[in-house]
Amino acid sequence: MTMRISDADRIAEFFERFSRADLVRLQDAYVPDALFKDPFNEVRGLPAIEKIFRHMFDTLDDPKFVVRHRMSQGRECWLAWDMVFRFKSSKPGQQEVIRGASHLMLADDGRIAEHRDYWDAAEELYEKLPVLGALMRWLKRKIAT
């Protein structure tokens, strides 16, 4: 009996090894008309998805995904992940982390047909920015009970 790697394991491995050089391999992971949605983007098609990932590599130093949990059933897959990176303006060694999850719907061939990322932009990103971060932390304290 041959053991087959699960779709969740295969996709998690793709993202954990993902680098700028892999932008040309996105068609191995996504169908041509795949949908991608995150807190800032909603696009369809490989060229638009590639543009989002290219922007990530252009604006961040050394972004890496660390998949913490994975789950799949049928053609549906969930990944819980940390994205570890440095802002271009960061001090050497200063890393940031965004914690999030991806809900993936897979095509019959196992490639991603729909990719929806869930993460809190206010807590995970805005609070880490110098001026905006101070304002977001102040607002959070005022609103908290």
From TrEMBL:
Coiled coil feature spans: none
SUPFAM superfamilies with a match to the protein in the record: NTF2-like
Start and end residues of each SnoaL-like domain: 12-115
One Pfam family this sequence matches: SnoaL_2
Protein name stated in the entry: Nuclear transport factor 2 family protein
